[in-house]
Amino acid sequence: MTSALAARQYLMTVPYRGDPACPGDTPDPDGPIPPAPPAGGKSARRTPWDSDQAREVPEDVPSLRPPWLDELGVLAGEWETEAWLPYGPAGAVRGLTTFEWLAGQHYVIQRFWADHRRAPNGLAIIGASADGMFTQRYFDSRGVQRVYAMSLRGGVWRLWRDAPGFWQRYAGTLDPDGTTITGAWELSKDGLSWNHDFDLSYRRIA
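RESULT FIELD:
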C-alpha cells in the first residue's frame, strides 16, 4: 500500500459521534427520536424545535456569507506534500493534505498526514475574519491547538502566529495553474529576528 493511499484512508475514516467505532459514545438517554406522525396526527413526544421561540434565528448566525471565502476554493482538493524537516531524514518527508468545504461553504476543513513518526497528523478549520482575511484553527495528534491569521493574496498563501517565545509564519507561492504551492516556515523568539524552520511544498493530485 502506498503512503498516499494509507494517508487517504487515515484522513477519510475518522469516526464520528454515533458511529459504533467511536469510543466513549453513549446512547441517547431519551431513546431514539420517534418517527414523524401520520398526516393529521399529533406527535407523541414534543421536542424543543416545536416552540415558536425555537424558530427565531440565533444572533450568532451570520446574515451574509463573506464574499472573500470564495478565495479558499483555490485550495480545495487533495495535495501531496513534501517537507524537509530539521530533525527528519536527509530526504523529503512525504505526506497528504486535503481541503474540503463544510456544508454551507462558510468553513474549509484541512486534514494533514505525514509519513514520519515525529511529524504530527491533524486537522485545521479555516474561516473568514475581518477585511478579507482568514483564521485557521489548528489541532494535531500531539494535543497541540493553535490559532493562525491567514491571507490568500497575489498568489501567496500566508499563515502567521504572534506567540511570545515561539512566533511562526509561512509563505507559500501558488503557481498560475493552481497545481503547486512552494513555501517555507520560519520561526522567531521575539518577532523581530527570523530563522528558517523547514520547507513545505504541495502538489495537487486531485
